[in-house]
Amino acid sequence: MIDLIGFDADDTLWENEQYYTRAREEFRALIGTHLITGGRPEGAPADLDDLIEATERRNLRYYGFGVMSFVLSLIETAVEVTGGGINSGDIGRLLAIAKRMISAEVELFDQVEDILADLYGSWPLVLITKGDLLHQQAKVDRSGLSRYFAAIEVVADKTPEVYAAILQRQGVAPERFVMVGNSMRSDILPVVDLGGLGVYVPNAGTWVYENVDPPAEANGRILHARTLADVPEVIRGLGMER
Amino acid sequence: MIDLIGFDADDTLWENEQYYTRAREEFRALIGTHLITGGRPEGAPADLDDLIEATERRNLRYYGFGVMSFVLSLIETAVEVTGGGINSGDIGRLLAIAKRMISAEVELFDQVEDILADLYGSWPLVLITKGDLLHQQAKVDRSGLSRYFAAIEVVADKTPEVYAAILQRQGVAPERFVMVGNSMRSDILPVVDLGGLGVYVPNAGTWVYENVDPPAEANGRILHARTLADVPEVIRGLGMER
Question: pTM value?
Answer without folding.
Answer: 0.93
